[in-house]
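Researcher: I'm preparing a figure for a lab meeting and need a structural model of a single chain. I don't have an experimental structure, so a prediction will have to do for now. The sequence is pasted below. Please return the structure as tokens so I can convert it later.
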Amino acid sequence: MSGSGFNYSQDTLRNLAQDVLQHARKAGATACEVDVSEGFGQSVSVRKSEVETIEYNRDKGVGVTVYLGQQRGHASSSDFAPEALRATVDAALSIARFTAADSAAGLADEKLLAKKSMELDLYHPWDVSVGDSIELAKRAEEAAFNVSPLISNSEGASVSVQQSHFVSANSLGFCDGYASSRHYIACSVIAGKGDDMQRDDWYSSQRKSVDLAAPEVIGDYAARRALSRLQARQPKTAQVPVLFEAPLAAGLIGSFVRAVSGGSLYRKSSFLLDSLGTQVFPKFMQISERPHLIGGFASSPFDDDGVATQDREVIVDGVLQGYFLSTYSARKLGMQTTGNAGGSHNLIVKPGDLDFAALIKKMGRGLIVTELLGQGVNYVTGDYSRGAAGYWVENGEIAYPVHEFTIAGNLKDMLRNIVAVGNDVLMRGSKPVGSILIEKMTVAGN
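Model: Understood. Here is the structure written out token by token.
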């Protein structure tokens, strides 16, 4: 891959978007919005030093939403030819004509749309050849095998490069877009033999390839994690404190976001209905949304509706200050959009003073969870039950690995009963957070 690798320039995407808007207007649409995008990538994987897969992906697409008053129709295509674009608009109009009017349908208010472009440093192409990618993956896997003879097998190591760009536009004059990149190196290995075998993995994901962890570091850490899980036991059933390791703690924050997002709220399918202004977390919890972080994983100057994003405080002293709303969900709730069509933007959970070891010491006796299995979460009631694996803690120190058990509780109680948030923040996704210690959950073992 050389240069940007894109077949279409940003100007070309903008022109295609304007052509769609023009045809929609001529065809009788009262309003229209369009997204035009292109993306490509390269992924390789190796297992036991042999190449397993080499994959290329190259995609492009246009999505058109038209309105006839408050009747809405949507259609999409992967063909950028003029006649195909016109046919896509016509298909969306045909759908709209047979759709019932929806009082919440329509474009965002013009005054809320993003008015100027913003450079957030999201695009860093990685010109890495297939051969070099294979070599990086082999180095990660070799480092894992070099840790110990007990690393007996491998699920593989992989290197992925992904780049994309898009333009969004609507008939109120909004038109903007940008390019972004996401690269990663991963390794997964198996330790032990016979009846005592355990797997674990690790990966590094960044917008800039120079920020990726060295493949040797990734492989080494994946191996040590797998080794530490050998001779795991099944814990006894008990109610004890539970410490969610940082990668899993982000999932708890994700559950909170889902519960206070517009779609869940207007459908009344959330355990946090009518929670605005109420105590959702303990008083020491602070969560901020920062959509304009330079290079952030979820940075954007505007949301999927074209609404300008802005910094805001979501949780202050444990109290919920605002929901996550799109234009549509806000209208359904009789509120104003928060610029969250498409999801949240860089949720920053204020870290505490304790590192991971200090969190374990603070817990004293309980459970560290490093892996979750299954999808046992009821977002209507908040009931939470997941298969898990991790480590048992006694006297503030890890005693032994544990597996084949479930942890259960209710998310409403779990969020309110957070005891501490660690300073071991993992910058891996859109919700960077340290490990989270919860006061008590039910551990169901033997």
